[in-house]
Every structure is written in structure tokens, then in C-alpha cells.
Specification:
Shape: globular
Strand order of the largest sheet: 2-3-1-4-5
Distance between the termini: 7 Å
Strand content: 5-15%
Structural class: alpha/beta
Bound molecules: adenosine-5'-diphosphate
Largest sheet: 5 strands, parallel
Number of strands: 5
Helix content: 55-70%
Number of helices: 8
Order of helices and strands: EHEHHHEHEHHEH
Length: 193
């Protein structure tokens, strides 16, 4: 399997590039943000609890997202691989993901990080907020809170994969197609078992 983590702060372009990657490599897209928003839409208990935190720009508890990923891995046993988008977001989530994959005799192939500075992120998210309808993209304070959560809780996840020799950073500012080319180059370096 080809198992990719697309990593980066909110607004780095993970969603956009995920679409390109899925189309080319036929991977299953697992975005915890999307999964949580579907729970909210469905009005489930999990969704209601998650919404309160998401509306404040705070991460939802690790157990919640780990459980959702566990279910999805079970659902797609015969996939060509997965692209993890917005997950793992804490070191605890990374450890859990490694364990889950190991139980299927699988592992992460590579983490691809999109690097974008905070000012550009703020501008992109405010712009996305005009059309996305996402409440967490609508005000500057909330966006800053999410970037803060990223810097304090999520950034260490990069070190975790760096230590495993699986980390590749790509400049996330520029033409979408050019960035996708750089992603393809990183993927072509990966040996898939
Ligand atoms: P963005 O990358 O723009 O922040 P996401 O859709 O990935 O958007 O996430 C939206 C919100 O959902 C986050 O601010 C957080 O509250 C919650 N969330 C998504 N994924 C996770 C995760 N892996 N762990 C904890 N919370 C998460």
C-alpha cells in the first residue's frame, strides 16, 4: 500500500492537493475534518460534541479521531492505499496510527508537508471563508487560534516522522500544478512494499 500523510497548517492546501493525489494514485482519502463535518451534518452525538470544539478552533479529543480512522481502515481493507489529510494532528494520534497500520502489517510510506507562512494562511482562510460556509473560516481570531493549535500541538508530529526518515517538506506557495509536481517527485522516491 501507498500510505501518505499530507501535512501542514490550516489553509496550506491539503484539501486541494489531496484531490490531485487521489485522482492519480487511486488512494482512499481520509480527512478527519471532513469526517467530523459529516457527523455534525448528521446531527450525531459525536458531531454535537465535536462542533463545540471546532467552533472554537480547538482540536477534538484524540480518541474521537483515532476511532473514526480505525473504522475507515476496517472499511477499506483492500484499498491501494490511503491519504491522511488533517490527521495525525498530535503525537498521540501518530502513535495510534502507526499501531493501527502495523496491525494490518502496513505502515506510513511518507509524510509530505506543505510549508506556508502564517500571514499567507490567514489571508487564504479568510478568503475561503467567503465561499466555504465554514464557520471556523469566518473570523480572524478563530483562524489565529487554529494556527496556534497547529504550532503547539501539531508541529511536533513532523519531528515524529522525521525521526523515522519519512519526512519531506515542499513549498506550499506557488502554482497548484507546480506544487503537485513536487509532490509527485516525493512520492516517486517512496518504496512501497
Ligand atoms: P483545517 O485544516 O482548515 O483546520 P480541518 O477540516 O482539517 O481544517 O479541521 C477543522 C477542525 O476539525 C479543526 O480545527 C479541529 O477542531 C477538528 N479536527 C480535524 N481533524 C482533527 C484531528 N485529527 N484531531 C483533532 N481535531 C481535529
Amino acid at each position: 500500500m501507498l500510505n501518505l500523510i499530507l501535512f501542514g497548517p490550516p489553509g496550506a492546501g491539503k484539501g486541494t492537493q489531496s484531490e490531485n493525489i487521489i485522482a492519480k494514485y487511486k488512494l482512499i482519502h481520509l480527512s478527519t475534518g471532513d469526517l467530523l463535518r459529516s457527523e455534525i451534518q448528521a446531527g450525531s452525538e459525536l458531531g454535537l460534541k465535536a462542533k463545540t470544539l471546532m467552533d472554537q478552533g480547538i482540536l477534538v479529543p484524540d480518541e474521537v479521531v483515532i476511532g473514526m480512522i480505525d473504522n475507515k481502515l476496517k472499511e477499506h481493507r483492500n484499498a491501494a492505499g490511503f491519504i491522511f489529510d488533517g490527521f495525525p494532528r498530535t503525537v498521540k494520534q501518530s502513535e495510534a496510527l502507526d499501531q493501527l497500520l502495523a496491525s494490518y502489517d502496513e505502515s506510513i510510506s511518507v509524510m509530505i508537508a506543505l510549508v506556508v507562512d502564517d500571514n499567507e494562511l490567514l489571508a487564504r482562510l479568510l478568503n475561503r471563508g467567503k465561499t466555504s460556509g465554514r464557520p471556523d473560516d469566518q473570523n480572524e481570531e478563530l483562524i489565529s487560534k487554529r494556527i496556534q493549535e497547529y504550532n503547539s500541538k501539531t508541529k511536533p508530529v513532523a519531528d515524529y516522522y522525521q525521526e523515522q526518515g519519512k519526512f519531506v517538506a515542499i513549498d506550499g506557495i506557488g502554482e497548484i500544478d507546480f506544487i503537485f509536481e513536487e509532490i509527485n517527485k516525493a512520492i516517486s522516491q517512496v518504496t512501497v512494499k
